[in-house]
Amino acid sequence: MSKQHLGHTARKRFGQNFLHDPFVIDQIVSAINPQKGENLVEIGPGLAALTEPVCERIDTLTVVELDRDLASRLRSHPFISSKLNIVEADALKFDFATLMTDDRPLRVFGNLPYNISTPLMFHLFEFVGKVKDMHFMLQKEVVNRLAAMPGNKNYGRLSVMAQYYCQVVPVLHVPPGAFNPPPKVDSAVVRLVPYHTPPVEVDNVDMLNTVCANAFNQRRKTIRNSLKELLSEEDIEQAGISPDLRAEKLSLSDFANLANIASHKVGN
Length: 268
What we know:
This protein is of the alpha/beta class.
């Protein structure tokens, strides 16, 4: 299948794979369920596969697009250009808080480039207090990681941090043939709904992230060894956790307890 699609060549450096399957597109738009008056934001609209059907249901849509050619195409789109607020920016660096208007929370969606999906998730978690929900097309493996529970091979730092911030709901499996060019992996759509109150109490979220990073960067080690820079064996036992466990066996609540003890040690 050609990488040339409607006159635009998919750019490898932007991780572009364009969605073209009408059935899949309809299912995704139904899952998002956009309503008039909502503050909707699409990341990486590409060739407008989701943008067009979403715009059929609403009056205004903000799109964040890094590729200048695609942003230019959207500006001259014959049907939807008048509904679009086009932001030419790198979503990884963009301040999504600037899109808050009239205190309306953001509803964020997109077919995310797979090469930036994980760092983009962490960037978006910084804005969860301003977000009602997020719907993303991701590599299926990333959706599996977002939703994974302790003991699962996909369970890791992304699982713990995502589940601290959001309810994670896998929505839809999407085969490679739904894209042009077809990626080498399966995809999936996930719904992330930020919690008003996180499910566990954490004194310092940066410390939770640090504890998770240290624990999972050396996931074959026991937490006694992987967390020794942060916590003593006694500290770990104080949290009610065996120092002989590996990271993948610890729950979000366990990581919260460890992070809180580590925070108190450094005086945060």
